[in-house]
Amino acid sequence: xxxxxxxxxxxxxxxxxxLVVLAGAGACAKSEDGDTPAAGGAANSAGAQVAQSAAAxxxxxxxxxxxxxxxxxxxxxxxxxxxxxxANPFRIAETQxxxxxxxKLGIPKTNLQTTNANSQFNKQISDVEQMIDSGxxxxxxxxxxxxxxxSVFAKAAAKxxxxxxxxxKINATPCKDYLTFIGSNFEEQGKRAADKMAAxxxxxxxxAILLGAPGNNVTTLRTKGFKDQIAKVAPDIKLVxxxxxxxxxxxxxxxxxxxxxxxxxxxxxxxxxxEMGLGAEIALKGAGKKPGDVKIVxxxxxxxxxxxxxxxxxxxxxxxxxxxxxxxxxxATKFFNGEPIPADIIISDRExxxxxxxxxxxxxx
Length: 365
Prior knowledge:
Layout: E1 7-9, E2 19-21, E3 50-52, E4 60-61, H1 63-66, E5 78-82, H2 89-104, E6 112-116, H3 121-134, E7 138-141, H4 150-158, E8 163-166, E9 180-183, H5 186-201, E10 205-211, H6 217-233, E11 237-244, H7 249-262, E12 268-271, H8 274-286, E13 295-300, H9 303-310, E14 314-319, H10 325-336, E15 341-342, E16 344-346, E17 349-353
Parallel strand pairs: 5-6, 5-7, 7-8, 8-9, 9-16, 10-11, 10-12, 12-13, 13-14
Antiparallel strand pairs: 1-17, 2-3, 4-15, 14-17
C-alpha cells in the first residue's frame, strides 16, 4: 500500500511479483439498516486492497464463457449478502466499503440491496434467493459457510447472474457456479501468525488456539497454516489446547477463561481473528495477568487489536483487509466488459507488531 510504513508480505499464490493497486440497499429480501459511513469506509480509502497479479496459466472466465449478458453497473440491480451482524469491525468495514464504492460509481441506493444473515446460514440462503427472484443482475456474497449453496447456484445459473464471493471461499466451480473469489491467502496468514508467535516465545512454550467458526475455509486454512508452520520453525512449541470461539469476542473470552482455569501456565494464544483475541485479553486481565505474560497473536487488523499491541497485550496482528468494495466493482466492470477474470483474486495483507503499531494505528479499521 503506497505511502504506508507497515510491513507487507504478499500471499504466496502468485508467480508474479508485481502488485496492482485497485483504487479505490430494497426488494423482497429485507435490507440492512443504516447508510451512514462507518469505520472502514470512505475515511479509510487509503487502506484499499492490493491484489496480486494473476499467475500465468491460472484459470480465467469471460462473459462469453459464462454465457451472461453485458450489464451497465450504473443502472444494474446489485445484491450484497453479508453473513454476520455488524458488531465485528471487519463486517462494518466490509459492508461500508461496498456501499461507499457503489455511491462513488453513481449506483442509485435503490439499486443496491444489502442483507445480513446474522450468522444464520439458512437466512443467508433465503436472502440471496429472494434477491435473485427480485431481479438482481450481480451478486456479491460474503458467505457464512463454504458448503450448502446448491439451491442458490441453480437459481443464479438459470438467470445467468454472476456471483462474486468475498472474504470466504465457496466450495464450488468457478465460471460455472460462481465467477470468482476475492480474498486473502488464509493458510499463509496462519503461517505468518506462527512465525510471529515463534518469535514472541523464543521458539518454545505452550500455545492455545482459539479456532474460528467451523464450516468455512477460513478456519480450516488458518489452523492448518499455523500448525504446519509451528511444527516447521518451532517444534519445541507445544499446541496444548484448541476450541472454537466462533469468531466472537464474547465466545473468545469464555473459551480463554476456561483455558486459564485448566492451563494457568499457558504462554501464548493464537486467535484466528481479532475479536477472539480481544476476548482473550479480557480473560487475561480477569485472571490477574499482566501485559506480555501471555503472548497473543491474531488475524484481522482492527484498531482494537493493533492498540492491543501498543498496550503490550498483543505481540502481533496479521491483517485481513475487509475493504472489498473497489476491487469487487472493478472486477465486475472488467467482467461485463468482456475481460478475463481469474478464478481467485488474492490480496496482499500487511502485518502489525511493536515496530509499527503506534505509527500505523490510523490505517487499521
